[in-house]
Design goal:
Blueprint (H helix, E strand, L loop, with lengths): L1 E4 L5 E5 L2 H21 L4 E5 L6 H11 L12 E5 L1 E3 L10 H13 L6 E2 L8 H15 L4 E5 L20 E4 L2 H10 L8 E4 L2 H5 L4 E5 L5 H6 L20 E6 L8
Parallel strand pairs: 2-11, 3-4, 3-7, 4-6, 7-10, 10-11
Antiparallel strand pairs: 1-2, 5-9, 8-9
Helix pairs in contact: 1-2, 2-3
Length: 257
């Protein structure tokens, strides 16, 4: 069950559990896959990683069925992973792309050609990010992006102080966010740098769903409830967006009521 907390700058829903929240996002994403197929177009989706979204991917796989028999139109989906660890090849065991393929893409059946992430192996890291942004510009914007919120207020990999117009770029992670992502990815160790999607990239999505679970997120969420963007609170870049929702559990929402 979900309920809305009203009169906030960002539409906010509280769910009984984190799993229920991300499963709700999965059902919505599946609906957009079908809608875009009906419109004879590809669905362009922003995918996150981390143990908290395991039920999200499990739900999509459960709903997919066989495409030729009325299941989800997997072949017409382009997925943009929100970042990659610097220096990691997509097929390397320590990469975010590999993490997602093991838990989702391989079982789901999507083709590697439709799985997009900045090339973290090239010497020109910014050039790789620019190419990723150009592809997103060409096939996008994203119909729906699911984005994690960090305990220090980070939106995706974008920490406090990030300009609202930022695009994909090499990002140096703070020790705090690095530790949080380590804990959220069983079997992976985050280095100090990632190639990650920027705030401008996220805000350019047609629909954005941000998820945050746990008591450690409550203070940062409360502080980010602002009517206009302030760089110290990355979530506030979504204030005024036409279609954004914040998905919380009772602990992360505890200071909003």
């Amino acid at each position: 069950m979900k309920r809305e907390i009203e009169f906030l700058p960002i539409k906010t829903y509280v769910f009984d559990s984190p799993a229920e929240a991300v499963e709700s996002a999965a059902r919505e994403m599946a609906n957009w896959m079908r809608t875009r197929k009906f419109q004879r177009a590809e669905a362009v989706l922003g995918f996150p990683t981390g143990d908290a979204v395991a039920p999200f991917y499990e739900k999509i796989i459960e709903m997919s069925g066989v495409e030729e028999k009325g299941g989800l139109p997997i072949s017409a989906v382009r997925g943009f992973l929100q970042g990659e660890l610097a220096g990691q090849a997509p097929d390397a065991a320590g990469s975010l792309q590999h993490w997602l393929r093991e838990r989702f893409h391989t079982e789901w059946g999507s083709t590697p050609e439709h799985q997009h992430v900045p090339d973290a192996t090239v010497a020109d890291a910014q050039g790789a990010c620019d190419a990723y942004e150009e592809l997103l510009k060409t096939v996008g914007p994203m119909d729906l992006a699911l984005v994690p919120f960090g305990a220090n207020g980070a939106l995706g990999f974008n920490e406090p102080g990030t300009p609202g117009t930022s695009r994909a770029r090499p990002i140096e992670l703070s020790d705090a966010l690095r530790a949080e992502y380590d804990a959220a990815h069983e079997g992976l160790t985050f280095g100090s740098s990632v190639l990650g999607m920027g705030l401008g990239s996220i805000r350019g999505s047609k629909r954005v769903r941000v998820y945050a679970f746990g008591k450690d997120k409550a203070e940062a969420i409360e502080a980010a409830m602002l009517p206009e963007h302030e760089p110290e609170h990355p979530l506030s870049v979504l204030a005024g967006h036409k279609d954004v929702e914040l998905l919380l559990d009772a602990e992360s929402a505890s200071l909003l009521e």
